[in-house]
Task: structure prediction
Amino acid sequence: MQPPLVLFDLDNTLVDRRGTLAGWAAEFTAQHGLEGEDQANVLDMVAERAYPSTFDAIRTRYRLPMSTAELWRAYCIDIAALVSCQAEILDGLEELRAAGWRVGVATNGAADIQRAKLRATGISERVDGVFVSGEADARKPQTRHFALAAARCGTELGDGGWMVGDNPVNDIGGGRTAGLSTIWIGHDRSWPPNDPGPDHTVPHARAAIDLLLLHSAGHTRTTT
Result:
């Protein structure tokens, strides 16, 4: 029997992307001598997802002297310096693996920034595999994204598993379509009306980990 699989979203699931970006935007605008109102505009430009093309637009809008490549490289370095993962979540990832789970990260985004965050937080050392959409042009909610993430963990979607994330469409809808059970990180939000709900809703990633540990303990008791 294959070990159980769980895939975690990265941003606003394992790490606080919103808070990290707010801190970065304040530093960025101060560094480049921009006005106070520009901070909110810059934050809006990177809020959904940041790519080199995003920084080409920022450079053009604010007539910055640095090249797009230089701005992007600085962004990756600065975000990695600011981002963090709570110790209880890092411990939980290790606890899942010790309990026999295959643990992976399935995240949309550019590979260099997402990998930088994973290294800086220590998450990459505590999971079996990582797949970033920018590595193969396969974005959540596409089933191919989840299949590639499972393969990075040494398993297959056909063996079942779980998806944990904060995005109702990309994580929960996509995970369900891929045949995975789902846990939604609600962040005190209401589930979108008329959408099929997740299997479970929890307030944060540590609660999801505890739920999975209980699930695996119960499964062990019923199969031994």
About this structure: The two ends are 13 Å apart (CA to CA). The first strand starts at residue 5 and ends at 8.
